[in-house]
Amino acid sequence: MMDQTSFGKMPDGELVKQFCLTNSHNVSVEILNLGGIIRRWLIPKDKDKHTDIVLGFDTVDDYLSDDSYLGALIGRYSNRISKGKFNLKGIDYQTDINLGDNCLHGGNNGFNKKVWKSTVLSSGDNPSIMLQLSSPNDDQGFPGTLSVKVIYTLTEQNSLKIEYFATTDQITLYNPTNHSYFNLSGHNSGSVKAHEVQILASYYTPTDKNAIPTGEIAKVDDTPFDLRSMTAISQPLSSDHQQIEYGNGLDHNLCLDSYIPHSKVATYVGKAVAIDTAINLKIYTSMPGMQVFTANHFVNKKGKNNTDYQAQQGVCFETQFYPDTPNQPYFPSATLEKNENFYAITVYEVLF
Ligand code: GAL
């Protein structure tokens, strides 16, 4: 089932639409055409009570004025580019600088702040919506006109499938993700520290204190980033490892063992489970990395239904290329060639 309502208006009066995708198990996901934001994700855990497993806001203004990317699609480049500088085929480019000296999540006016064109693809058992955006040449400093398409599908297996497509008329970079903050106990239920996670990653990319990778691809063995068997989130967070200190918690890219360059298949990379609700989230992707971020800087952030979100109230599993890839010769490349067809897929499956 697919339900379409108005969520509000942009400052210039443009309508922001909200699409509610519901399957026959009564799982529903609400998606905005603003930033492709996943605003609500309701799991019918108890007979007459849904658990909303993602953090979000209630107004367009909240989404536009916040800088935490709640639920949003990110572009053109997820995560950091050091000093916003990169070189493609001998040409130097300079992007927006919007976090310290660096570019974060595509710059000041990234894809999360844009109203996307929306088309309902299916309103039946596997409701599906297509969002499209044309990012002009030099948008936030990135070269090439980039045509982007994202298809969200809620399946009968209670999975949300996110497919990313793009083409460019000039060599460029493209590194998309979805920035949902999950709380499998419910968005208004406090910290996720008791959640247990498993991430099949034998390596991670250590950073400097500004979250820029050093270039090393380091083994996770004997570090807080060894999450290969089920581990409570509180465990890495309480470690005195320098990287945890730098990130003020977990805010790191894990190198996914399953990655196969150019694969179009989403393979299992990890899961999270809330002990109290026993809601499980399984993650599958074709992407090489996953930024695991525990909302370390939240302080009384006013979210949905007047909930005050605090540090560690959500955890992001941002499937993506590694940070600062264009400046790191040993990282999988996020370069998109002229007329190449980009495709990536991430699937979040909820078991309850
Ligand atoms: C994450 C990033 C964090 C923080 C957050 C947005 O992806 O790694 O450091 O910037 O986005 O608030």
Describe the protein in words:
With 352 residues, the protein is mostly beta strands. It has one domain: Beta-galactosidase, Chain A, domain 5 (Distorted Sandwich), CATH 2.70.98.10. Helix content is 5%, strand content 41%. It has three helices and 30 strands. The protein has helices spanning 60-65, 234-237, 242-247; strands at residues 2-9, 15-22, 28-32, 38-46, 49-52, 73-74, 80-81, 85-88, 91-94, 103-104, 117-122, 128-135, 146-154, 159-168, 172-173, 177-178, 181-182, 196-199, 201-204, 218-219, 231-232, 251-256, 267-273, 280-285, 289-293, 301-302, 308-309, 315-320, 335-336, 342-351. The strands form eight sheets. A nine-stranded antiparallel beta sheet has the order 11-12-13-14-30-24-23-18-21. It has a six-stranded antiparallel beta sheet with strand order 17-28-25-22-19-20. The radius of gyration is 19 Å and the shape is globular. It starts with a strand and ends with a strand. The protein binds beta-D-galactopyranose (GAL). The site of beta-D-galactopyranose has 9 residues, from strand 25.
- Biggest sheet descriptor: 9 strands, antiparallel
Bound molecules: beta-D-galactopyranose
**Cα shape:** globular
CATH C-level category: Mainly Beta
Individual helix count: 3
Number of domains: 1
Radius of gyration, in angstroms, nearest whole number: 19 Å
Q: What is the CATH-assigned architecture?
A: Distorted Sandwich
- How much of the sequence is in beta strands? 35-45%
The total strand number stands at 30
Mean of residue pLDDT values: 98
Distance between the termini: 20 Å
Low-confidence spans? none
Strand order of the largest sheet: 11-12-13-14-30-24-23-18-21
Question: Into which percent range does the helicity of residues fall?
Answer: under 10%
CATH topology: Beta-galactosidase, Chain A, domain 5
